[in-house]
Amino acid sequence: MSQQHDSQSYYVPEQSPWPIVGAFALFLIALGAGTTIAKIHQTGDPGWGKTVLIAGIVIVVLMMIGWFKDQIHESMQGMHSEQLGVSYKQGMSWFILSEVMFFMAFFGALFYARVLSVPWLGGEPNNEMTHLVLWPDFTAMWPLEKTPDGTETQAMGWTGLPLINTLILLTSSITMHMAHVGLEKNNRKQMKLFLTLTVLLGSIFLYLQVLEYVHAYRDLNLTLDAGIYGNTFFLLTGFHGMHVTVGTLFLIVILARVWCGHFSNDNHFAFMAASWYWHFVDVVWLGLFIFVYII
After folding, report:
1. 227-259 and 269-288 helices cross at what angle (nearest 10)?
2. How many CA atoms within 13 Å lie on the side-chain side of 258?
3. 51-105 tens-digit pLDDT
4. pTM for the full model?
5. Which of 4, 10, 230, 286 has CA 20 to 30 A from 214's CA?
């Protein structure tokens, strides 16, 4: 189909294989990642889990390329009506809401450990007997720098790389907004410049987070096995890093489309969706920085 649809029509796309391909790829990633972690913990070798994980990642990349290609083709051929645009906005809003609830679960685990579990193990309130039976040497403090098996670790401070990364993400939110303003004003030079800066800042953030993880493992003995503090630290920052990776790839695709002359000041949902997602990632990091690093 290549005909132009009027604003009152609703375009129903043909059946697509990409949703089931994506679901299968995510299954492989979950299976491969879980198996890899378990095998490494047991034997020190990832075994077949590593192969399954890599296969899942490759299939996800291929799925994204194919699905993006189909969506871009439909958009550029004028198949998307105004009514469909409203559906896209609602869908993206619900998707971001689901992501908010995803992170709320991990923040909830963090608060439960800090506010309820740690004081309870320390004998408060009125829990001295359980404290003596379960862990008599336990000191109720956060972050927990000693695991039940006696392993000692150090907490990640908020200065240094975490503070630099916070400033980088805050700056990237500003550059993303300036790129959006450039698009709305039909100033494509401004849009290209600030969108490119946003991609660069996102990439720098990811690079610095890798350095932070290397520092945590090598110098602080802060690992995924380092008790509840290590668990919550890496789950929250790791999943956020994954979302920054997805957001950066999203922005790279949008930047490529901008250089190809796509989008106008009155038709740019994909650009707007990328902007929404990037601001969401920035807000989540602010919560992480405050509750994981500072408090």
Report:
1. 160
2. 28
3. 999 999 999 989 989 988 888 888 787 777 777 778 888 999 999 999 999 999 9
4. 0.84
5. 286
